[in-house]
């Protein structure tokens, strides 16, 4: 983590439709994959300004596996949208994979980022089959770009279906898949990223709606990916510490749009920072590489 240096002039805080841009400025440090030093504002219906992210300063380096935790409305998804190049900051700056958001076309950049998020899920055509859903991830788009697809993409897609235990879904329509099956397809889709796979993986609540076996399978698939590609930086947003993959190295705690704590899991996934973040006395334990949290029992005096 480091402080911001040169705040950029405001490009209005709108989603990627506005501007979609990257400049050719040199990257700040070779190992920096995503650097966010930004504030995001919106206006409520009454015109009152809302601070979604307040001066958040965060850096993800190659090989780091981050988890982002925080209460509802903390700004977790907003932060992931910034890091994925689908949202422009109101103030400050964002650099992703060496490119500065705010200059030229972001579409090429997005092809290098694997994402699981609710907006993408909603936008996918329900009639696509499982294999096609995974193949849309090859170019970071919602549509199946048939003309750009080659044999190598299909080979990779089938391999990823196997990785997430979803070979049988290759010919099932997305709309007919259960929630757990869809989440597995979406993870495989996020891992597509062209011929070589993504250079940054952003998973926004990837285990939503999963039963216990499906959740465990998903966590295992994320962990397997981290072991297979240890250099691939990953950011996972979750509500439940039980869903944090054992390969996670760093944690960011957000509350009301501000960073409460950020650092290694050993520093951050502890009783005090988590209790402060959620405003609740919490007890955190780790066993077999996995975390668990519960409200601290009240001791009788
Ligand atoms: N377009 C918008 N206009 C106004 N407020 C918004 C807009 N988008 C998000 N917000 C608000 O910004 C805050 C942060 O939203 P965000 O989705 O990033 O939170 P989150 O931490 O991901 O929440 P959750 O855990 O509930 O998914 C919320 O209070 C939300 O209502």
TrEMBL record:
Name this polypeptide is given: ABC transporter ATP-binding protein
Gene Ontology molecular function, alphabetical: ATP binding; ATP hydrolysis activity
Annotated region described as Disordered, given as residue ranges: 1-24
Pfam families, per the entry: ABC_tran (PF00005)
PROSITE patterns documented for this protein: ABC_TRANSPORTER_1 (PS00211), ABC_TRANSPORTER_2 (PS50893)
Native species: Patulibacter medicamentivorans
Biased composition regions of type Low complexity, renumbered to the chain: 13-24
PANTHER family: ABC TRANSPORTER I FAMILY MEMBER 10 (PTHR43514:SF4)
InterPro entries listed in its UniProt record: AAA+_ATPase, ABC_transporter-like_ATP-bd, ABC_transporter-like_CS, Molybdenum_import_ModC, P-loop_NTPase
Residue intervals of the ABC transporter domain: 35-281
Keywords on record: ATP-binding, Nucleotide-binding
């Amino acid at each position: 983590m480091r402080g911001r240096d040169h705040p950029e002039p405001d490009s209005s805080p709108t989603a990627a439709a506005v501007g979609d841009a990257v400049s050719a400025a040199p990257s700040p440090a070779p190992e920096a994959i995503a650097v966010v030093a930004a504030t995001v504002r919106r206006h409520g219906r009454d015109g009152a300004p809302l601070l979604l992210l307040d001066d958040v300063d965060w850096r993800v380096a190659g090989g780091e596996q981050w988890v982002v935790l925080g209460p509802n409305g903390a700004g977790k998804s907003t932060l992931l949208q910034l890091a994925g190049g689908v949202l422009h900051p109101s103030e400050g700056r964002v650099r992703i994979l060496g490119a500065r958001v705010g200059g030229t076309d972001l579409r090429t950049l997005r092809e290098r980022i694997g994402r699981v998020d609710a907006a993408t899920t909603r936008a996918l055509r329900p009639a696509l089959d499982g294999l096609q859903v995974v193949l849309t991830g090859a170019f970071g788009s919602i549509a199946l770009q048939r003309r750009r697809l080659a044999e190598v993409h299909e080979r990779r897609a089938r391999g990823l279906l196997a990785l997430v235990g979803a070979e049988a879904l290759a010919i099932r329509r997305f709309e007919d898949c259960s929630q757990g099956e869809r989440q597995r397809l979406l993870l495989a889709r996020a891992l597509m990223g062209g011929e070589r796979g993504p250079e940054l993986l952003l998973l926004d609540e990837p285990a939503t709606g999963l039963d216990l076996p499906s959740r465990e399978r998903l966590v295992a698939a994320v962990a397997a990916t981290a072991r297979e590609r240890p250099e691939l930086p990953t950011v996972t947003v979750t509500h439940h510490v039980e869903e944090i993959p054992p390969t996670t190295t760093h944690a960011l705690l957000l509350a009301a749009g501000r960073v409460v704590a950020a650092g290694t899991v050993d520093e951050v996934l502890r009783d005090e920072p988590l209790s402060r973040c959620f405003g609740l006395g919490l007890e955190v334990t780790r066993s077999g590489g996995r975390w668990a949290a519960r409200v601290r029992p009240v001791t009788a005096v």
